[in-house]
Amino acid sequence: MAQSLHWDSSYEIVLALMEAFPDAELESLSLDDLNRRIIQLADFADDPDLVNDAILKGILRDWYEEIGA
């Protein structure tokens, strides 16, 4: 059973995003689009209303770092 994803689990969210959206073009991905994609993840279990731009920017930054690694 997969672990539930919450806003404070940015690394786990990034891994799930990479699996769900392997061909994502991060340069053209808006924060609203990122938010929608996260909420659509099967294991996402947090309150969508708790997100803010800082959280989304952090997840996007982690995603960039992970694909660049």
Task: Report the sheet with the most strands, covering strand number, pairing sense and barrel closure.
Answer: none
Provide mean pLDDT, rounded: 94
Name the beta content range.
Answer: under 5%
Supply the number of structural domains: 1
N-to-C CA distance = 27 Å
Briefly note the CATH topology name: Arc Repressor Mutant, subunit A
Uncertain regions: pLDDT < 50 for 5+ in a row? none
Helical segment count: 3
Order of helices and strands: HHH
Helix content: 40-55%
Structural class: mainly alpha
**Overall outline:** globular
Total count of strands: 0
Radius of gyration: 11 Å
Gist of the model:
This protein has 69 residues and is mainly alpha-helical.
Textual characterization of the structure:
With 69 residues, the protein is mostly helical. The chain has a single domain, classed as IscX-like (Arc Repressor Mutant, subunit A). 54% of the residues lie in helices and 0% in strands. It has three helices and no strands. The longest helix has 16 residues, at 53-68. It is globular, with a radius of gyration of 11 Å. The termini are far apart. The model has no long low-confidence stretch (mean pLDDT 94).
